[in-house]
Specification:
Helix content is about 40%, strand content about 20%. The chain is built from 21 helices and 20 strands. A six-stranded mixed β-sheet has the order 2-3-4-1-7-8, with helices on both faces. A six-stranded antiparallel β-barrel has the order 9-10-13-12-11-14. Helix 6 crosses helix 20.
Length: about 675
């Protein structure tokens, strides 16, 4: 009996769709000894099968062998055949292969974006020999929306979305493989050593963005300035008054102001009050959501996206990969807020919102595939602590979007002290509006000033002159760099977190406040000096815009790839002309970085230098002292994996999903020995 085959992107989606559509309970199926499952069920007297992939079951691979560049000859092959790390996907591949033989109708129900469309199309085309199928489109995994997406399924796949997704895959392969080969070959040719260095279409410009900022920070020269502050008594309160000029750049002037301010009384020259209206926040898109997850909880963007994905798969929130800052009425505001009101933490806010017209404050950004991220109203009963935190943030943001504007009063008391002006600033909330809905994420500092009148005389308790220096620009955080990438059109909503993670994994950047390592800085500088197009934001943005135009039907994939091949051929030609020079510079950077990273400190026994050594034949690593020639036998074993970075403790373990404190040792024995040595 032929069945209708529903192709899903992940096992959890396969289960959810089967449970939503089945008349009765779906039957869980799997091969003996395999964890790869599929589900069978009946509906309207017909047999259905939901079968999951595990993301991409196919990947691009070079046709033939060789390490030359540029190379544009690629084909789609099963992921498990191309990469040993993807071996886990083979059982899922075999399931689809088997179930495809008896399939009648086929429905693609992967995530509705360019990646999901490529996943579905490749399975359809390369495994079933078909070019088209029906398409379920949904933004949440709730039963109601899944049933509706089945009943109103599109008759065809979105060809423009397929073409845009395909273009991105080819572009990323072209750039990633060819540029990585160029860097690696350069080192091999100049130093006769094999060391893989990678860069890519988005990775290169993003590293350059961070490296340029790092240079600005390191080249920054501080300038001294002075602040004059008064402590003034008003009634029972003592308040701080700042000199009217934000900074005094000349010490002589500061001393003059200080002398005048050393009086006993200050006279109120004027009192100013200004009412400020603060609009509600915009709904979350992927970038702003991940930025705030990092800001409030410290979860890296990749970790935040993973948490959001689990909430989406469980049906608690909508699809978390979107550029949109808009909430369309068809998601049913009233229904969602009513459902949220059944949860104790949100009942009071929901009750207040349901008494007014529900109209969200929206941003300008749009997305043709999905709305802004929103909660479905489902109670997250099975969520873990991290999931609950992220869910709470989203719920309160969603509700705050429907709130009234907040009204705050800005207050300023202007004082005269012997002809010099000092200011006391204060703020207070007049009407909370949306702030009351946003909870702890809406904390605003209130300092209501006491009532004073013009010409009142106030006692000066003390006066201080503070020596200060200008500070360099702040480093990007993992949240703020995502916003900067979005502004500069580097990467997509779905890839920015991954690109940042790659920079950490390659050792190009470290730390919560992102610091570019010596290797990352040298790589960026070498590329900028020799092949500037590799780190060009403009060029990367151009190709991203072209792929967006493919999705809109304004551009052809073939033309975009032809342009990319032309650009990469030009870059490769320039690279080969300078290959030896680039290789020498890269080799120096690699060796310098390795030497610097290998030094752990001073030996307590002989005052030599403790360094990390590696036995290249066995891959084993250990800490040894440079004083071994003089008889020092200080040494410690290290695990094969892990890297050194400065942290509160040299042997702090790296927390799963983050990169701010990379591990130096991954077992307690090594850690204890290191601590004994004074680290």
């Amino acid at each position: 009996m032929a069945h209708t085959l529903i192709i899903c992107e992940k096992p959890t989606a396969s289960k959810s769709i089967a449970e939503a559509l089945a008349e009765g309970k779906p039957k869980k199926m799997f091969e003996e000894g395999s964890k790869a499952v599929w589900y069978e069920f009946q509906r309207d007297g017909k047999k259905f099968v939901t079968v999951p992939a595990v993301g991409h079951l196919f990947t691009l691979k070079q046709i033939g062998k060789g390490w030359e560049y540029p190379n544009f000859d690629v084909e789609w092959v099963p992921s498990f055949k191309a990469n040993q790390m993807a071996a886990f996907s083979e059982p899922y591949f075999r399931n689809i292969e088997k179930l495809a033989s008896d399939a009648g109708d086929v429905i693609v129900a992967t995530d509705y974006d360019d990646e999901g469309e490529v996943i579905g199309f490749n399975i359809l085309n390369l495994m079933l020999g078909r070019k088209d199928a029906a398409r379920m489109k949904f933004s949440t995994m709730t039963k109601a929306e899944l049933v509706d997406s089945y009943l109103h399924a599109e008759k065809h796949l979105n060809k423009n979305l397929i073409e845009a997704g395909m273009a991105r895959h080819y572009l990323d392969w072209y750039y990633g493989i060819n540029l990585t080969r160029a860097l690696t070959n350069a080192i091999k040719k100049s130093a006769k050593r094999f060391r893989i260095l990678s860069t890519g279409r988005v990775q290169g410009p993003t590293l350059h963005l961070l490296a340029s900022h790092e240079k600005t920070i390191k080249l920054f020269k501080s300038t001294p300035f002075w602040l004059i502050q008064l402590n003034v008594k008003i009634g029972k309160e003592t308040l701080l008054a700042d000199y009217a000029e934000d900074k005094i750049w000349e010490k002589a002037k500061a001393e003059s102001v200080m002398k005048k301010a050393s009086a006993k009384k200050a006279v109120v020259k004027d009192v100013e009050k200004k009412l400020v209206t603060q609009a509600p926040p915009k709904p979350y898109n992927t970038t702003s959501f991940l930025s705030d997850i990092y800001r409030y909880f410290g979860y890296s963007p990749q970790q935040g996206l993973n948490i959001a994905e689990t909430l989406y798969q469980a049906g608690y929130i909508s699809y978390p990969r979107t550029s949109s800052e808009k909430l369309p009425p068809d998601i049913n505001y009233k229904k969602i807020i009513s459902a949220l009101g059944k949860q104790k933490d949100y009942s009071k806010g929901a009750e207040a919102l349901l008494k007014k017209e529900l109209k969200p404050h929206e941003g300008a950004r749009t997305d043709p595939a999905h709305p802004a991220i929103y909660p479905t109203g489902e109670i997250p009963s099975k969520a873990g602590d991290k999931q609950k935190k992220v869910y709470d943030l989203l719920v309160r943001r969603f509700m705050a979007c429907f709130g009234d504007p907040a009204k705050r009063e800005s207050q300023k008391i202007i004082l005269d002290v012997n002809g010099e002006e000092f200011l006391i600033h204060g703020k207070k909330t007049i009407e909370k509006g949306w702030l009351s809905l946003y909870g702890k994420y809406a904390q605003r500092e209130d300092q209501a000033l006491p009532d004073v009148k013009k010409d009142d005389s106030l006692e000066i308790v003390s006066v201080d002159m503070l020596d200060k220096e200008t500070q360099p620009p702040a480093r990007y955080s993992q949240g703020s760099v995502l916003k900067e990438m979005e502004e500069k059109n580097l990467g997509t909503k779905a890839t920015r977190a991954q690109i940042l993670q790659i920079l950490y994994n390659r050792g190009y950047v470290i730390g919560k406040s992102i610091e570019v390592t010596e290797l990352g800085q040298q790589l960026s500088d070498i590329l900028e000096k020799n092949v500037p197009d590799v780190v060009s934001e403009k060029l990367t943005g151009m190709f991203d815009q072209m792929t967006e135009n493919i999705e809109l039907g304004k551009e052809k994939r073939e033309h975009v790839l032809k342009e990319a091949q032309k650009e990469l051929s030009k870059i490769s030609s320039e690279f080969k002309k300078k290959e030896m020079k680039i290789g020498e510079e890269l080799t120096k950077a690699v060796i310098a970085t390795q030497d610097k990273q290998s030094i752990l400190g001073t030996c307590k026994e002989c005052h030599g230098t403790l360094k990390v050594h590696k036995l290249w034949r066995t891959g084993k690593r250990f800490v040894g002292c440079t004083g071994y020639k003089n008889g020092c036998r200080t040494g410690f074993p290290l695990p094969r994996e892990g890297s050194r970075a400065t942290g509160r403790s040299a042997c702090t373990r790296r927390r799963r999903g983050t990169n701010e404190v990379p591990r130096i040792a991954d077992n307690l024995r090594a850690c204890r020995r290191m601590r004994t040595a004074g680290f």
